[in-house]
Structures are given as C-alpha cells and as structure tokens.
Design brief:
four-stranded mixed β-sheet, 96 residues, alpha+beta, 27% strand, 4 strands
Length: 96
C-alpha cells in the first residue's frame, strides 16, 4: 500500500513539474524548498531554513541533510502534503 502512495505522489509531482519549476525559478537565488498541497492543488516556495525549523525535531536533521545534498547536486526538494492521508513526503529531483 505504501509503495502505491509513493508512486501516486511521484506522478502528481511529474504532472505538475512545469508549474513547480516555474515557481522555483522565481526564487531560484534563495534555493527554496517546494511544497505541493494535494487538497488545495497549490504549490508553495518556502525559505529552506524556515521550512526546516517548522518541522518536528526528529525530521529536521534528515530534511537539512536532504536539502544540503540537493543544493550541492543542483537538485530541488519537493514535499507533497496530503492532509487527507496525514502524509508529508519529500522527493528530490534534478533541476532541468
């Protein structure tokens, strides 16, 4: 079941990648963390360290590491927020 959810979220990101990157490029110099809210069908660009600070203590180190690796490798970190299923999942993609 979990694998099906992961695939579903990846598909949503792929379907919305042009919109996600369009917003990302508006703030590219700040290297934002992107969030796609499934229920709202909205994309947000967050200042990375503010976003990380708002997460649980257990998640902060993991997200910070993922973000720093992404910046080094010219990648983008995208979160999917699914309030209905109580999920917040992160993905890293190459910047095109």
């Amino acid at each position: 079941m979990e694998n099906a959810i992961v695939k579903k979220y990846e598909k949503i990101i792929e379907e919305n990648m042009d919109y996600i990157l369009n917003l990302y490029y508006q703030f590219e110099d700040k290297k934002p963390i992107m969030l796609y809210n499934i229920q709202e069908k909205r994309i947000y660009a967050y200042p990375p360290y503010e976003f990380i600070a708002d997460q649980s203590e257990n998640s902060r180190k993991k997200i910070l590491s993922q973000y720093e690796d992404a910046v080094i490798n010219n990648q983008i970190v995208i979160f999917i927020k699914d309030s209905e299923n109580k999920k917040l999942m992160s993905y890293t993609f190459d910047i095109e």
